[in-house]
Amino acid sequence: MNNRALALDALRGYAIITMVLSATIVTHVLPGWMSHAQTPPPDHAFNPMLPGITWVDLVFPFFLFAMGAAFPFSIGKRAEKGDSKLKLVYEAIKRGVQLTFFAIFIQHFYPYVLSSPQDIRSWLLAILCFAILFPMFMRIPLKMPEWAHTCIKLLAYGVAVILMVTTSYADGRTFSLYFSNVIILLLANMAIFGSILYIFSMHNRWIRMGVLLLLMAIILGSTAENSWTQAVFNYTPLPWMYRFDYLKYLFIVIPGSIAGEYLMEWMKNLKDTDHSDSLQYRKLSIVLVPLTIVLIIFNLYGLYTRMLAINLSVTLILLLAGKYLFLRPTDGIALLWKKLFNAGAYLLLLGLCFEPFQEGIKKDPATFSYFFVTSGLAFMALLFLSIVCDYFRCVRSTRFLVMSGQNPMIAYVVGDLFILPLANIVGIAPLLSYFQQNAWLGFLQGVILTGISVLATMFFTKIKWFWRT
After folding, report:
1. Contacts for 231-240 with beta carbons within 8 Å, 24 or more apart?
2. Which of 88, 110, 188, 418 can pair with 99 through a Cys bridge, CB separation 3.0 to 4.6 Å?
């Protein structure tokens, strides 16, 4: 078996690839379920009153879930090697600060931010930003003293700061700490607070659950005027970096950490007596594959079309069918599937029970139903990928997912900061206008641009140029 959980890499890769895809398709010619449910076509104006979710609304929670699932492998293994809690907390804060810098830096150097309309200067600056990110977030593959690596990294940060402060932007904009990529900023907060919570509860999942209940109480209590909960909710010493409201995404990250523990327990307990190759387990895997896919797709359809009663009924039937499959004693990877299925089933049902609350499930403003439903579906997605990647070992067909998931920071920005600027410089970017004529071409544009971004990411992963915080 692998010494790395390929299913987790594949889930992270799926999240980052679909994140890029959702940003590159021509949404104004596509149906509503190809956009966020709260920003429907044709004008895509934000409407917080619209309930429902689409596949686009699963992208970010799946990535958060994968982040939490990585905690046992990153934090847990370092703790086993003897790193103190204080050192682990320091590393978590350091990672969060680095991600915050990343969020601010890339946001200032998107070509459309640098000039309007975009010009050769904006494209060259975007490519320069992309190049500077390499010494900033990867270890230079040359033999040199540790202090030399540190100096190169600090020099890259210094150049980035100078560029941000001295560059002129479109529409009279100036450098601002408050102007950052909100997705990366949320990930930075989760890297800090999610990691710290895991550090002090890695041997007791109930502590994590208890903290989530306290967090829920503060969030719900913050609506009471002049209450201490409202004061805590509104307090922020660094408003450009932290808001208490960001902590609500721990409701996805922490379940992810439990999924990661399930994966690690399976990998640690692999034995020669594992019956995973038996006919019983093979039949189980063949049934679970369509079951998990149907659960995900039908819940997206039912919640988007607001067929709530039918969606709940079908979900219950499918979950009971899945529960029946695990009645026999299991071990090895089948025991992992059972744990993932049970946790996912509970969270999915919990989310559907919360669905009428807060006027229906919504990504923005995020509701408790959204946190629990997406966490439950993430468990099902991880189960599906565990079967495909770690059981059937479909390595070649999932390589693009795994390699993208191993280098997500590059995958996230390579399109905007390198591929599109380069396409504009060589004069082929105007051809993209032909893809805005109908829905098929609008989707094809996203597939092409995303595919190029994936190939570029796979190249950097192949040569082991990883961006790490």
Report:
1. 239/178, 240/176, 240/177, 240/178, 240/180
2. 188
Q: Are 46 and 362 in contact (CB under 8 A)?
A: no
Tokens matching residue 308: 């709530």
Question: What are 20's two structure tokens?
Answer: 């890029």
User: pLDDT (tens digit, 9 = 90+) per residue, 43-57?
Assistant: 888 999 999 999 999
Task: Give the model confidence (pLDDT) of 302-359 as tens digits.
Answer: 999 999 999 999 999 999 999 999 998 888 899 999 999 999 999 999 999 999 999 9
Give just the sign of the alpha carbon dihedral 35, 41, 44, 50. negative
Sign of CA dihedral 392, 393, 394, 400: positive
Residue 169 DSSP symbol: -
> At 180, which amino acid appears?
S
CA 164 to chain centre: 27
Q: Cα–Cα distances in Å, from 370 out to 46, 53, 54, 317, 384?
A: 17, 8, 11, 21, 21
Distance between CA atoms of residues 227 and 197, nearest Å: 25
The count of other CB atoms within 10 Å of the CB of residue 205 is: 13
Q: What Rg do the C-alpha atoms of the chain give, in angstroms?
A: 23
Query: What whole-number distance in Å separates Cα of residue 466 and Cα of residue 469?
Result: 10
